[in-house]
Amino acid sequence: MKHKLWAVIKKETLILIRDKIxxxxxxxMPMILxxxxxxxxxxxxxxxxxxxxxxxxxxxDQDTLGLTIYRGLKSSTFCYLHDSIDGKPATxxxxxxxVAKGQFLIGIVIxxxxxxxxxxxxxxxxxxxxxxxxxxxxxxxxKIDSVNIIFYIDPIAKKSFITSITSYMHEFIAIxxxxxxxxxxxxxxxxxxxxxxxxxxNTYDKSQIINYKEVFASNLTGEIVPNAVQHNxxxxxxxxxxxxVIPISGSILKEKKEGSLLRLLTMPTSNLVLMxxxxxxxxxxxxxxxxxxxxxxxxxxxxxxxxSLELGNNLLAIYILAIATSFAATGYGVMVGTLASSEQxxxxxxxxxxxxxxxxxxxxxxxxxxxxxxxxxxxxxxLNWSLDGFYKLFFRGAxxxxxxxxxxxxxxxxxATMCVASIVxxxxxxx
Amino acid sequence: MSQLxxxxxxxxxxxxxxxxxxxxxxxxxxxxxxxxxxxLGPNGAGKTTTISxxxxxxxxxxxxxxxxxxxxxxKINSIKQIIGxxxxxxxxxxxxxxxxxxxxxxxxxxxxxxxxxxAINNWLEKLGLTKAANxxxxxxxxxxxxxxxLIASILHQPKILFLDxxxxxxxxxxxxxxxDQLKELNKQGTTIIYTSHHLEEAENFCxxxxxxxxxxxxxxxSPKNLxxxxxxxxxxxxxxxxxxxxxxxx
Lengths: 431, 250
What we know:
The structure holds two protein chains of two kinds.
Chain A: H1 2-18, H2 20-51, E1 53-59, H3 64-75, E2 79-82, E3 84-85, E4 88-89, H4 92-100, E5 106-110, H5 114-130, H6 137-140, E6 150-153, H7 159-192, H8 203-206, H9 228-242, H10 245-257, H11 260-265, H12 271-300, H13 315-339, H14 343-360, H15 372-378, H16 382-395, H17 400-428
Parallel strand pairs in A: 1-2, 1-5
Antiparallel strand pairs in A: 3-4, 5-6
Helix pairs in contact in A: 1-12, 2-9, 2-12, 3-7, 5-7, 9-12, 9-16, 10-13, 10-14, 12-13, 13-14, 13-16, 13-17, 16-17
Chain B: E1 5-14, E2 24-32, E3 36-40, H1 47-54, E4 62-67, E5 70-71, H2 76-82, E6 83-86, H3 98-108, H4 113-126, H5 142-154, E7 160-164, H6 172-187, E8 191-195, H7 199-205, E9 208-213, E10 216-221, H8 223-229, H9 236-244
Parallel strand pairs in B: 3-8, 3-9, 6-7, 7-8
Antiparallel strand pairs in B: 1-2, 1-4, 4-5, 9-10
């Protein structure tokens, strides 16, 4: 039994290492995939956070609100602000045309009198609050014409960009309104009690006592900041590991096609030994693949100006989860190879099913942006179990206890796929 | 020829799931120890199906098969230890060398260490492949592949050797070497069960022949007796055509 298993392992290894195309699918392509996908994602990330969205601002207000918005957007890393088009000051018409041409993602027009409208609105509020009830307040009310801040939006702009920009605008308007309200109140109170009141200077700025600090919740000793490398390397590593389905199923179907399997079935060797030999070799291949891809994340990606991959605190847990993922991927490959009747069929079904599982499992799109039903489906996908485990290890400082259940689920998936393959094999030979 | 049947088949029938007609239809015959038994017939006659059932590749729909005194259905694993099968296709790994292929298949028969190495070297020499032993199968000619295909099934000195058209598509030289070595193997005590379309080869090689068509055995006997029984038959080919007629088969 031991000799037979060793012979199968040796045979599979020799076949694999002599198949140059197979080797490139297994090792080189996934490494290129990780580098490319991480760079692309990093680039998209930078578009938002460093270079910024191109925005054209038409400031017809030329008052506090217009200036606050201008200064706010100008200092923001979120956008790259322009106020002129082709060297000429932008107008509402030219801004709309430029956005329509795709020159800018968003155009903002602050109409004339926007600040005055806020002042009038605040003034009415202050009057209502401070002027005695005996005086008819309506006499002091200023009639306000409502003003609209206009957004011209490129149809290709993501909803999240628009939401971010409108949030910025709401914030600026609130700041200006509060400032004006504070100033108006101060002046009114000074009028009411002129002797004892000392006019405050820059009091509004001093009133900013609540600040925001982003801290990533994690059990890690050193802080790991989420970035394209931390997200992409585990995700695309799992994706590539499951692509082992192509060489495994190809190897099974080649044996069928070339008649070797038929010969083996006439020999005193159980199918279990033949399959176990294959599984052992491909689990080792998957594990090497995993190590190489992490090495790309740690050592190669920094050469492209990206951050180095941080592995968290628990290497044993990473190893356990990687082995469990390798078994799941290998089992899936054996199942596809057994079910398919030709190499073409296995490569199409294999690659499309992995792509589908990657989409459902949160590899292509994070599960938290999916609708509830898709999130429920995602819970059933082995790629998601693996990804969930690696995110726990790489971001949250989890340990063996936190990923052991996910590892068992992956091993259970492997056992299930091997059982299906075994049943299908028996049925096929009971012609 | 001894009178001990090593293979006994009674009323063997095989009907495939997707077919209305039986591929093998109530076939019965005996093969004696040390025989070279030829199962001949046109394409689709049921030769390969019969041999595949005897090797344990497909279950029979009905019938009784005993090999070396063991019922096939109950003792398939023990039977696999004493048989060798040379398939019609070149069932070798093209990217492995001849030696690597033989080491693998020898190990599958339970051979290891010096026994395996000696058996491989011995057969490679006998079949003129020593120089090519470390070359990949994909670089071999058709005749060389056929010879390795044969060695892969005889390394363990099987009691019974099944050969499904072992010389198809090879040159005269390779065919002669293969047949000579099979005769040598038979002398050493291996019973040979063989199918072929080379009727002249079968006439010279086999001690006993059965002609099968449409899943039924038409005639069985030694080549000399079969020719003698058929009037106007000068050779086995005449016997074959008299029995199976000249109409083309699918």
